[in-house]
Write a structure and sequence with these properties.
By secondary structure, this protein is an alpha+beta fold. It has a 5-stranded antiparallel β-sheet.
Length: 178
């Protein structure tokens, strides 16, 4: 009986590879749900939901990627495919990195702003715009842009790379801000 079931659980056979695929998929679902629950719990302790949402999504992508790499290493037929995919991903990441320098700069600056909190939603800031110096209250800080609204209702959308490198004058937070 043991010898008849051995091929079904061998990652070298198609049936064994499928069994392991199901096991890894199940493990991915369970671990991702645990990660989501931990992120929801962490949201209660951190004032910025954008940061916790971003890090929760990053954690889930990392979990899926790690499980896929482990699965590809376990199945002999996928080892060479994994090496080829890794080499291809390296080339694609270099090309995309060069093509999206501005966007990636905003993303990295957004992460920096979320980590260091030089300002928060509700803070009143004075910044230099093409129209000159303007004052607005921060209504949103995302990974790419920071949104301010002036007292006259105008929206000022500032790339985070500018927010991270500009000299900003911060005033008292408006009432009703977070």
């Amino acid at each position: 009986m043991n010898d008849t079931l051995a091929p079904a659980f061998s990652p070298a056979t198609l049936s064994g590879a499928l069994v392991y695929a199901l096991l890894f998929a199940g493990a991915g679902v369970v671990v991702s749900r645990i990660a989501r629950a931990l992120v929801r719990r962490a949201e209660k302790h951190f004032p910025d939901p954008t940061a916790t949402t971003f890090f929760g999504q990053l954690l889930q992508v990392g979990i899926v990627l790690a499980l896929f790499i482990l699965y590809a290493d376990l199945v002999p037929g996928l080892r060479t495919l994994g090496t080829a995919v890794l080499a291809g991903a390296s080339v694609v990441s270099i090309v995309l990195g060069l093509a999206a320098q501005s966007t990636l700069g905003n993303l990295i600056a957004g992460i920096s702003l979320l980590l260091y909190h030089p300002f928060r939603v509700g803070d009143e800031l004075q910044i230099s715009t093409p129209r000159g110096m303007m004052t607005g209250a921060i209504t949103s800080v995302t990974l790419g842009y920071t949104l301010l609204v002036t007292t006259s209702g105008e929206e000022i959308i500032v790339p985070n790379s500018v927010m991270a490198s500009a000299v900003i004058v911060r005033g008292a937070p408006r009432s009703g801000g977070a």
